[in-house]
Amino acid sequence: MNPEQWTAVDRYITDALVPADPVLEAALQASTAAGLPAINVSPPQGKFLHLLARIHGAKTILEIGTLGGYSTLWLARALPAGGKVITLELDPKHADVARANFVRAGLAGLVELRVGKALDTLPQLAAEKCGPFDLIFIDADKVSIPEYFTWALKLSRRGTVIIVDNVVRKGAVADANTTDPSVQGVRRLNAMFAKEARVSATTLQTVGSKGYDGFTLAVVIG
Ligand code: SAH
Ligand code: DHB
Ligand code: MG
Fold first, then answer.
1. Where residue 194 falls among pLDDT bands split at 50, 70, 90?
2. What is the signed CA dihedral for 58, 61, 64, 69, rounded to 10 degrees?
3. Model-level pTM greater than 0.85?
4. Which residue has the CA at smallest separation from atom 19 of ligand 1?
5. Which helix (H) or strand (E) holds 88?
6. Dihedral, CA atoms, 159, 160, 161, 165, nearest 10 degrees?
7. 10 CB under 6 A from ligand 2?
8. Nearest to residue 165, comparing CAs of 217, 210, 215, 219?
9. Alpha-carbon distances of 179 from 32, 140, 184, 216, rounded to whole Å
10. What is each CA distance from 158 to 82, 101, 155, 195, 207, in whole angstroms?
11. How far is ligand 2, taken at its centre, from the CA of residue 82, in Å?
12. Any residues with CB less than 8 A from the CB of 151 and at least 6 apart, and which?
């Protein structure tokens, strides 16, 4: 375990593969200045999400957990003409920072931000017949991951890609006796996959500037 090296390599990857981008950097600076926690995806992870959306040709994207909108901007930039991201955020302060970041990026027209508990907003989206979405990124509180996934499935079609962040938690996910409610949330998600024939999923462990964690990638196949 060498977190300093992971961070140094992330910096190297960012320098090599993620071109300096004033709009994305300004979004992070505004988030820091406003006192938001630095728990956004890293630049290489943001570009990974962006490329997944591009590969998939995603035109409609749902994000659960906006923070200052850094991952939202990466996803919005992957959209084709006429595309749209709906992003859900509980904290009005985070939402204000994100909204300003979308305006500064010139992407406010592509992003709809809904403030409130995601478990209140998701049924509203379903009632409004929003979706099905082409790609869904789950990155809010971890306790509710199973419920977010259930709603994500309701808002999906065959072929929808669902990505879940923070599913390894320094390896704690493999501890069947964990008492951490966030880790239990991830383990409940994995138990759902075991019973859910409509979904094919895998998880990749990651190291980097955010430490040791991972992404789950799921595709709705049925
Ligand atoms: N996706 C962002 C990071 C999100 S951090 C990025 O990578 O840039 C998680 C966010 O989820 C925080 O802003 C937090 O306020 C929000 N959140 C926590 N609980 C929530 C809930 N119940 N409903 C909606 N958002 C929630
Ligand atoms: C943390 C990291 C995240 O990516 C997230 O979405 C929430 C919390 C963390 O490191 O605490
Ligand atoms: Mg996250």
1. very high
2. 90
3. yes
4. 141
5. strand 84-89
6. -150
7. no
8. 215
9. 31, 19, 7, 21
10. 21, 33, 11, 17, 31
11. 31
12. 118, 119, 122, 123, 126
